[in-house]
Amino acid sequence: MIHSLPNLPYELNALEPIISRQTLEFHYGKHHQTYVNNLNQLIIGTRFEDVDLLTIIKEADGGIFNNGAQVWNHTFYFEAFSPSPQKVPTGKLLQLIEAKYQTFEQFKDTFSQKAVTLFGSGWAWLVLTPNGELDIVQTSNAANPLRDGLKPLLTCDVWEHAYYLDYQNRRAEYVQRFWDIVDWKMVESRL
Residue 120: CB partners within 8 Å, gap ≥ 6? Predict the structure, then answer.
């Protein structure tokens, strides 16, 4: 199986000024593509040569896991954005958010805090637990909550390459602006 870089659902300049064309050229066009290329090279001759990314995430380790998970994580991250997003969740997702965090604003504050305070590189995730409740988890490096039996709904990439060209060392500002492009219609579809 050959893995490929999926097309973005928007143009490279569509998320400006929150995420610049230059950042997407590097983050999507170079970093994401490199994970795809590395994965395709690493799986040759292994039991992962003809399996999907979910199997790789759940069963692989080392370089195959790291690159496979980063392909999945980045695709999931980029697909949650829109230049004209649905700005707030509705329906069942909003009910789950309010049941756990009282208000949408309190949820965003809690998620943002997790994203900003993650030490080093990694991800903040909104996940659905096996008992049907929401949770916010942090993962380091390429780690993915699928490995822990959690269902990802939204992620924020807090590796420096996700924001450094636009925000330098101002991770908190990047996370604050992240909310302006999250498309809650897409997030709701992941429930």
Answer: 140, 141
In the chain, the N- to C-terminal Cα span, in Å, equals 28
| Span 47-87, pLDDT tens digits | 999 999 999 999 999 999 999 999 999 999 999 999 999 99
Rounded Cα gap, residues 177 and 18, in angstroms: 6
Q: What is the 8-class DSSP label of residue 148?
A: G
What phi and psi, each to the nearest 5 degrees, are found at residue 24?
-65, -35
Query: Residue ranges of the chain with pLDDT lower than 50?
Result: none
pTM: 0.96
Cβ count within 10 A of residue 45: 7
Element (H, E) at 185: helix 184-189
Omega cis (within 30) before 85: no
Q: DSSP letters of 97-109?
A: HHHHHSSHHHHHH
DSSP per residue, 70-115? HHHHHHHHHHTB-SS---S--HHHHHHHHHHHSSHHHHHHHHHHHH
What tokens does 158 get?
């807090």
Which residues 6+ apart lie within 8 Å of 164 measured at CB?
A: none
In order of their start, the domains of the chain are 21-79 (1.10.287.990), 91-189 (3.55.40.20)
The enclosing H or E element of 124 equals strand 122-128
